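[job 4471] stage=fold_predict status=RUNNING
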Amino acid sequence: MKNVLKCISLAALIVAVVAVLGACNNQPAPAPAPVEAPVEAEVEVPAEPDPEPEPVEVEEVEAVEEPAPEPEAGFTADDVQIALIAHSPDSILDDGSFNEGAWQGIQLFLSTHGLSGDHAQFFQPHVADDAARIDLIEAAIDGGANVLVLPGFHFESSLYEAQDLFPDTTFILLDASPRRDGVTRVENNVAAIHYAEDQAGFLAGYAAVMEGYRALGFMGGIPVPAVVRFGHGFIQGAEHAAASLGLEAGEVTISYHYLGGFAPDPAHAMAAAAWFADGTQVIFAAAGGAGFNVMSAAEGAGASTIGVDVDQAGLSPSVITSAVKGLDVSVNAMLTAFVEGRFQGGEQLFDASINGVGLPMGSARFENFTTAQYDNVFAQLAGGSVTVSNSLVMDEILPMITLVTVVER
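[job 4471] inference complete, writing structure tokens
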């Protein structure tokens, strides 16, 4: 994605990012007991799951041009009260994904500013719908929270409304923008954080081929923009590595498929097992909870996987690396900007140039791909000498691919 978004000031962001470069592998503090919404806020569980968001090109949306809210005079770090809101009753804190990564960023902020754990709480709704999420947002604010962290696209519609209902509250929305009925609108009290998934996927594909894998697979949850960019970047990274190694056309193949959902399902494990039995050596699973099924199948087949969003090496011995988003980096940066009176609403992109994406080499299980090789290609991405298309259209990606054979399944 081209970085044409409205970003926080470079000087301020560099300070925030440098402060957390060493924190990517920190373990989160013990999970607090989640705070639930008041009983009277319960509504019926919908018969069908929440509809998935329509694709939205982040760069086409502009934030409302209003002054960003600033803490009142005399405001200090000790006045910060943070709420991390889950999107459903099944969305736990230690989810190995967005909640956990966001919580790590919160804990880093607290530690850096010498604050106790009492300054942050985790909230879960009774049911998974927008009304329950708005009720929980209100409950957190009534409880004293003045900055809320909302992980994931499930909050697009509820925050579209909540940003107006609670204009004096600061919101940090991860991997999405407030959106309803096809309209995207970001008020000045919302930082809508996006990540360069195309670059993260590129690094994963590059590393896999440099490690020695030749039969690769990509399994996405559903083709929402973030997942598509992961997959398209993965293809481009494999192509770049094949060219760097002087491989012949067709030596590297990528099986490519969307599972149709993010929830764990035995059918996903069966599909992955079939791929491994057919010769696939490593699968990049950008599929949320469904990725656990892929890991299970890989363990049974003695094969490998690549995790997504956060460092998932601890979830399975099959995980050789993970295409991570700087959830902790971005949350800590936004909280720091908030307490220092520099918070800036609008859509903001975290990419390789500010360590917003990457591979956690410290926990990687590579035997051939070296840290020096990774640092070299990462520097090229960060500096712009290597570019990755963030197109959501496969027909625009494939003409650029001459060495890798992509089989859509």
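[job 4471] summary: Residues 225-245 form the longest helix (21 residues).
[job 4471] exit 0
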